Amino acid sequence: MSSPLHPADKERLGRSLIGHDPEQAAGNLAVASAQAHERRHFHDWLLSPYAAAINALRAEVFINYSRLLPALEAGGTTVIPVPLTRWMRKITTSM
């Protein structure tokens, strides 16, 4: 994905950030370029097979939960137990 700025505009912007605050120039340049950089990651994510699999799992969970929730509420359920300690053990053993 290309930048919407012309190379001369990029140069002018960079020099103005450096000239305005030389001590914070690197940080200012990082902030100025962050949106384009993260947009690139987002498009990489959308196009990857891994993302497709994760999004399919998320959709499945959402669909299952949306069907389960009315039944739980009708039965008076106010809490859904989640095995966090078991998940935490799995995380530490897989590292």
What would you say about this model in short?
This protein is mostly helical and 95 residues long. Helices cover 78% and strands 0% of the residues.
Task: Tell me about this structure.
With 95 residues, this protein is mainly α. It has one domain. It has 4 helices and no strands. The mean pLDDT is 83.
Keywords, separated by commas or semicolons:
about 100 residues; mainly alpha; 4 helices
User: What's the domain count?
Assistant: 1
- The helix/strand series, from N terminus to C terminus, equals HHHH
How would you sum up the major sheet?
Answer: none
Q: What is the subunit organization of this protein?
A: single chain
Number of strand elements: 0
Distance between the termini: 35 Å
What value does the average pLDDT take?
A: 83
The total of helices stands at 4
DSSP helix fraction: over 70%
Rg result: 23 Å
Q: Percent of residues in beta strands?
A: under 5%
How would you classify the helix and strand content by structural class?
mainly alpha
Low-confidence stretches: none
General form? elongated
